[in-house]
């Protein structure tokens, strides 16, 4: 599992005291311009100091049949060139965790001096209530959802959006999200791209 990964790859990144870090988890199999758009929009609109791209050893809800090795996906994320305040890490592999609830618990315990926001695309929110301990996640960190073609409506009628409707932060107050006590979430609109890893994999297969 950890083949080809260096100690740096497996370490939890750090940031200065009080800084706001966006946790952006994904399979990134492979990464693409849609991922960049998400990370950049989150950075700008949430006034993030850093984004940590958490390259998962394997999404617990996905089939891993065509999942590229972790080291290769991590290298590909770095190659995207997201910018100096972005860090790509595979620390979930080092801690032998797959579930985001565990990842967030570890990040918060190891870095109590930072503020975290969980970042995800609209399609992820649609099935968020199937994630392990999803309500614990909702109560532990603010969440930012970035719009994705085809998922706007299903997102806003998702179990999460309905249950936590009164904790939604208006988009024009998104820069404040990291300072709100969870549960707190916002939905960020803007330019969208339909790009997906599955499209790229299909193209590669020809
Ligand atoms: N084009 C996009 N617009 C908005 N969010 C996106 C986009 N592509 C991916 N995301 C989000 O980025 C995160 C990581 O996505 P992932 O690595 O699974 O890519 P994907 O393109 O959705 O992959 P696949 O096609 O294999 O399902 C998820 O939160 C997903 O919602
Ligand atoms: O914790 C869970 O139960 C869970 C279920 C599905 C997905 N996730 C996380 O969601 C992130 C996005 O996954 P993916 O495969 O859609 O890119 C990634 O960090 C996964 O580990 C987490």
TrEMBL record:
- Look up the domain of life of the source: Bacteria
Q: Which GO terms describe its molecular function?
A: nicotinate-nucleotide adenylyltransferase activity
Return the similarity comment.
Belongs to the NadD family.
What's the Enzyme Commission number for this chain? 2.7.7.18
Q: Mind telling me what this protein is named?
A: Probable nicotinate-nucleotide adenylyltransferase
The reaction(s) annotated as catalysed by this protein in its Swiss-Prot or TrEMBL entry are: nicotinate beta-D-ribonucleotide + ATP + H(+) = deamido-NAD(+) + diphosphate
Question: Which Pfam families does the entry mention?
Answer: CTP_transf_like
> Could you tell me which pathway this protein works in?
Cofactor biosynthesis; NAD(+) biosynthesis; deamido-NAD(+) from nicotinate D-ribonucleotide: step 1/1
Q: Which residues form a coiled coil?
A: none
Family annotation (InterPro entries)? Cyt_trans-like, NadD/NMNAT, Rossmann-like_a/b/a_fold
What the entry lists under Gene3D superfamilies is as follows: HUPs
Function statement = Catalyzes the reversible adenylation of nicotinate mononucleotide (NaMN) to nicotinic acid adenine dinucleotide (NaAD).
